[in-house]
Amino acid sequence: MEEGARQARRGGVLEAERSGALEARDLACWRGERLVFADLSFVLHPGEAMLLTGANGAGKSTLLRVVAGLLPAMEGVLL
Fold it and tell me: pLDDT tens, position by position, for the chain (79 residues)?
């Protein structure tokens, strides 16, 4: 796990939740019969950006739709 993705629990609240960070844990998404991505985790703190790259059909737009709440994640959580 990357150091930026490690979050210490303090009083039962994750640091990411306190700081207003966007955290994804073990996301998975299917489109039709196809698994688009699985076991995807990341943390973005305020002011940070993430660059999504990949071939057509790799799941970039699907991930953005899941993060925006337009598609449900089949597994995992967004905090």
Answer: 344 434 444 444 455 555 689 999 999 999 889 999 999 999 999 999 999 999 998 999 999 999 999 999 999 999 9
Closest CA to 76 of 5, 25, 36: 25
Question: In 3D, which of 69, 67, 74 has the Cα closest to residue 49?
Answer: 67
Torsion of CA 52, 32, 29, 76, to 10 degrees: 170
Dihedral-angle region of residue 40 (phi above 0 means left; psi in -120 to 50 means alpha; beta otherwise)? beta
* Three-class SS state of 18: helix
The structure's pTM equals: 0.72
Angstrom distance (rounded) from CA 77 to CA 23: 8
d(CA 39, CA 24): 10
